[in-house]
């Protein structure tokens, strides 16, 4: 099969995949839109419908009380909209274009700013790989910073900021459910600021203070705005991208859609293989979430993998190439300074960051200071012209428990603090990357030092893994650390898949990693006391207690898995209304007995009775309880004895 | 197929399963025995052999340094001993019998102490289910307590205590590895006492103080002694047991062996279905780890599932029946007091403990105080005669985030504290059960209150789950909480499988739950600073850095999975010496680049040079580095370009 035929075939597979998405939305779910005040602000959420609760009555005339639907944050963009006409060859609707135009501070670019981009465009042989539609490219007018930070500091509330405020405001979105729900447990947020209602003004303040970023390249108008900051919901990033030994463009687009279906708030394209430029274009044009990259990877690819041959000029051209495509944040390893490299000499696992090891090699080969550090201000000048956020890379993060919190790691963190301030001086948004492998007792120190050195800029960690002994399960070893550091204030968690340390993740791994990290992030939201976070837990537990099995499944992070696990041992339809499952069977189900107990206990009203009356009342109630025991079953389970399996 | 034929067939399957175990030990592993001073004390551990490290030399004359093998704690008993003659119809060797006899404080029982046991024995129809060998039964001589607690208080160091001291002493077992290893990170143990060398005397003190228990029924002489306590390695319990709608005796024996293969320190048999008595006998006779039960389940089965028909007399008979079989600890829900039951009325998920809901129902139906509470001293009198430990049940634990740390839960905990002292007064060993579902910010309070109310008796929690929203993944939602509470001082963690809330776990679920919990327990050991805990992490990371892939796999918790995940994208044998994997490919592997960097950085010796000399030295080194780059590969990878996949 020719390469072209190959591509067409895999592209057809990707399109079929999208149709499957739209045809198989999450169960009992519909897309709802909450409108803002500013024009064009329409925030999509997923609304999960619930069955009513049986609250009394008789078998022939049961009494029901409705359960308010539950709305949850939704990262899947138009892909979960059954009516949306999606064509991956055209990309997603550019929902931010009007907002960008109206700001009047950008202009269309008529030629490529990057030499490499131009070369790629003129290369006929790449025709079949190219994204098929032409895209507008913009750039800031001369001397202007077009970043959300710049606007925020000037007191401007952009439509993006309002969008985000609505998105984060789980309480308001769930007003009906919240009224029914009990008061959430107060959180322990270690000094964070979590207002009961998140307003657009609050968002602006947070961005202006540098405590949050809203990554949104003017050339990525397709994104649904989102915010990364300690005082907002903890976010999760998924990594995709090919390598020299694996994967194709279409597989990467599929992984993108798959990751966002499972809740990825941003996605990093970490490709290190072939056609990095083309792969990225397809990804960005079809991504409803911000896209991050490590430009150094592509730069290294351009010099044939020889780190010593990297240069500032080549890197600069790569930044512009990616900026024009619409990358929303760059990981820049400007903290790997020459003097720090020898500090890693005695480590067990040296430098585990790809970017970090590349820069370290360059520094040593030239015996010069890291050119990213040297040219940092020039990098800022590029980024402020497109509103690309920094993700200041932790090139010297620890790759083993033994290396955690060592001199090299914190020397770099100090430098990242210095660079944070320099970026802010240029009105560029900044977040700071973090570890890695850290045993639990050392996690808090990481958070505290980062808050101090980086003046509360958002922290973005990879895990951390809390032990090294379980390759194959590092989504789990790291979810333990991620939940904790999220609780302590980390703003975004970069997921880890079961393939970590072993190979490139496939789609299953992406899902496993995503679910593990949505769990960690949500556990952190609960622990911090993010208003409204507990609504979903409460709704699911209520459904569980009432044996509304479908509702329990539908409210969960992975309804299909919950349902299929249940059905493995109790597949009949009657199982879905059964007041037990195969764990304990009908006689031992504590929830079933518990309902009987509750109904009885609630009926005891003894406060107004004297001792003798109480005694008599008790005997009477006890007798009633024994007699009524059999009739306290809810639902149509008269035929439910021990089911035949 | 007749029932008998059915049983023989499934028994043959179980035997085949055992042979598979013995035929397929963990890779690169052998069983080693460390002898104690007291006669018969021989502690088995698993020793993992490692490849040597290439440290220099030339391609024709490479120079190697050996890597000391790593010894790890082993719960699989004789099943991992290739020479052991195992016949599940005969059970395991009774390694403790001489120790028990020599204490001279027990006597053989010639008749059944339990009416039920006698009935079962006389029932011909149960012949085919019965464990096939006759077993000695013992009981304490009149008035004597034969518990490890009683001995410890009298200053006696039993062989069991010495056994345990050797088992826990990872540093001493790994003396060779420990000398090579770097200093472990100091832990934060929140006031625990973790001596560098664990002695038998230390063990005795901990047991005497009630801070640790050594569960070891005199009728379960087959166990390899183990200890549960805050100042020891965090332990993990696995649950097995059939239910009315699932599983057979042989499947349960297989689950036992499977769980101990994956590291279960104790196993609870929570059967609620048919042939509970017979199932338990097969399990105990073949178990190298302590076995726990909830006697209330079987008692309920005996009254046809009608909780109101339970009585103290029936329960007492059940205790004796199980005591004579050799159950090592009983979960007793004596804290579910009548006055507490109404406190659960407003909960979201009521009472989720099976035993708790059963006792609550009984209390309300009779309007009487919990008969387990009323007869607690009599229960102690039985348990002290066999050395059965209490696991004081948390019948009122929270089953949802909303219910965490509520009035009912802590009222019960206070009562468990009172009962702890009452049991100690009778010289009965005690551990205390705990939650459940607890958001992270509320976990620490649980540990602190339990330490206070229960005078540091060991805590034994179920998770806790840190969010309710992920049925299907509750091994993960709870591993997050379990790691934390283990760090804070919890002594044993009861595992949770992916099937939690959905159905009875199968073998795969048992494994997934076990790995998740071994991770949580080990993360806690590292965080507490248990001496020697970091040796395995360091050895694995060192192997990873040196691309000793087989060693990395072999040191991991699940070598087969690590290997197969790696091989999914890089299956050739050359992949096992490759200095990269499919995650990044050969050009981008940070570990490979990192080795180059390290070798160079370590070679810089500039301290004695002046500025000009330094400059010249640097240029020379830089040139050397560039020239030598290609020759710094280790291993036979001259043929490793980009592999053909």
Automatic annotation (TrEMBL), chains A, B:
Signal peptide positions on this chain: none
Pathway membership, UniProt: Cofactor biosynthesis; thiamine diphosphate biosynthesis
InterPro entries named among the record's database cross-references: ThiC, ThiC-associated_dom, ThiC/Bza_core_dom, ThiC/BzaA/B
Protein family: Belongs to the ThiC family.
Function: Catalyzes the synthesis of the hydroxymethylpyrimidine phosphate (HMP-P) moiety of thiamine from aminoimidazole ribotide (AIR) in a radical S-adenosyl-L-methionine (SAM)-dependent reaction.
Recorded catalytic activity of this chain's protein: 5-amino-1-(5-phospho-beta-D-ribosyl)imidazole + S-adenosyl-L-methionine = 4-amino-2-methyl-5-(phosphooxymethyl)pyrimidine + CO + 5'-deoxyadenosine + formate + L-methionine + 3 H(+)
Gene name per UniProt: thiC
EC class: lyase
Subunit record text: Homodimer.
Protein name (record): Phosphomethylpyrimidine synthase
Binding-site residues, Zn(2+): 437, 501
Cited Pfam families: ThiC-associated (PF13667), ThiC_Rad_SAM (PF01964)
GO MF annotation list: 4 iron, 4 sulfur cluster binding; phosphomethylpyrimidine synthase activity; zinc ion binding
HAMAP family: ThiC
Binding of substrate, residues: 239, 268, 297, 333, 353-355, 394-397, 433, 460
Cofactor(s) essential for the protein: [4Fe-4S] cluster
Region: Disordered, residue numbers: 620-645
Protein EC: 4.1.99.17
Annotated residues for binding of [4Fe-4S] cluster: 581, 584, 589
CC annotations in GO: cytosol
Domain ThiC-associated: 25-107
Highest taxon of source: Bacteria
UniProt remark on cofactor binding: Binds 1 [4Fe-4S] cluster per subunit. The cluster is coordinated with 3 cysteines and an exchangeable S-adenosyl-L-methionine.
Organism of provenance: Rheinheimera tangshanensis
Any one Gene Ontology BP term: thiamine biosynthetic process
Keyword set, alphabetical order: 4Fe-4S, Iron, Iron-sulfur, Lyase, Metal-binding, S-adenosyl-L-methionine, Thiamine biosynthesis, Zinc
């Amino acid at each position: 099969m020719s390469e072209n035929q190959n591509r067409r075939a895999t592209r057809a597979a990707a399109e079929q995949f999208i149709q499957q998405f739209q045809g198989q939305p999450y169960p009992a779910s519909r897309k709802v839109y909450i409108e803002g005040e500013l024009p064009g602000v329409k925030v999509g959420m997923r609304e999960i419908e619930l069955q009513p609760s049986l609250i009394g009555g008789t078998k022939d005339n049961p009494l029901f009380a409705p359960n308010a639907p539950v709305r949850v944050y939704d990262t899947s963009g138009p892909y979960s909209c059954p009516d949306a006409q999606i064509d991956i060859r055209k990309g997603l609707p550019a929902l931010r274009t009007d907002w960008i135009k109206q700001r009047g501070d950008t202009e269309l670019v008529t030629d490529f700013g990057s030499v490499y981009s131009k070369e790629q465009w003129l290369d006929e042989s790449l025709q079949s790989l190219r994204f098929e539609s032409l895209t507008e490219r913009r750039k800031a007018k001369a001397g202007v910073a077009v970043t959300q930070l710049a606007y925020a500091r000037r007191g401007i509330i952009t439509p993006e900021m309002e969008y985000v405020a609505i998105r984060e405001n789980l309480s308001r979105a769930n007003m009906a459910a919240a009224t029914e729900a009990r008061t959430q447990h107060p959180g322990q947020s270690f000094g964070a600021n979590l207002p009961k209602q998140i307003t657009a003004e609050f968002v602006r303040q947070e961005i202006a203070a540098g405590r949050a970023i809203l990554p949104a390249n003017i050339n990525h108008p397709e994104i649904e705005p989102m915010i990364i900051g300690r005082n907002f919901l903890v976010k999760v990033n998924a990594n995709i991208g090919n390598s020299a030994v694996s994967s194709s463009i279409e597989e990467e687009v599929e992984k993108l859609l798959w990751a966002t279906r499972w809740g990825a708030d941003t996605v990093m394209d970490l490709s290190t293989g072939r056609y990095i430029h083309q792969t990225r274009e397809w990804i960005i044009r079809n991504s409803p979430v911000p896209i991050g990259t490590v430009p150094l990877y592509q730069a290294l690819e351009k010099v044939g993998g020889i780190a010593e041959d990297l240069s500032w000029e080549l890197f600069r051209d790569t930044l512009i190439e990616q900026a024009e495509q619409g990358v929303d944040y760059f990981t820049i390893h400007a903290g790997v300074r020459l003097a720090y490299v020898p500090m890693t000499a005695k480590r067990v696992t040296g430098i585990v960051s790809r970017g970090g090891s590349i820069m370290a090699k360059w520094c040593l080969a030239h015996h010069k200071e890291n050119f990213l550090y040297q040219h940092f201000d020039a990098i800022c000048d590029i980024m402020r012209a497109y509103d690309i956020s920094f993700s200041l890379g932790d090139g010297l993060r620890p790759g083993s428990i033994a290396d955690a919190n060592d001199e090299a790691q914190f020397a770099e963190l100090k430098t990242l603090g210095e660079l944070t301030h320099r970026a802010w001086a240029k009105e560029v948004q900044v977040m700071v990357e973090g570890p890695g492998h850290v045993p639990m007792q050392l996690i808090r120190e990481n958070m505290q030092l980062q808050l101090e050195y980086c003046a509360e800029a958002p922290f973005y960690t990879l895990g951390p893994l809390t032990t090294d002994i379980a390759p194959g399960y590092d989504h789990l070893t790291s979810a333990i650390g991620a939940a904790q550091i999220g609780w302590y204030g980390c703003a975004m968690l970069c997921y880890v898949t079961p393939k970590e340390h072993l190979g490139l993740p496939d789609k299953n791994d992406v899902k496993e990693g995503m679910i593990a990290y949505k769990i960690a992030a949500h556990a952190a939201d609960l622990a911090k006391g993010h208003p409204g976070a507990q609504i979903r837990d409460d709704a699911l537990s209520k459904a569980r207690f009432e044996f509304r099995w479908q509702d329990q499944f539908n409210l969960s992070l992975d309804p299909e898995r919950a349902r299929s696990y249940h059905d493995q041992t109790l597949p009949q339809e009657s199982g879905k209304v059964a007041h037990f499952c195969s764990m304990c069977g009908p006689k031992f189900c504590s929830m079933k007995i518990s309902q009987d107990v509750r109904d009885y206990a609630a009926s005891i009203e003894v406060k107004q009775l004297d001792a003798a009356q109480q005694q008599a009342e008790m005997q009477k109630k006890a007798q009633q309880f024994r007699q009524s025991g059999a009739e306290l079953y809810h639902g149509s389970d008269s035929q439910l004895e021990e089911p035949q399996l």
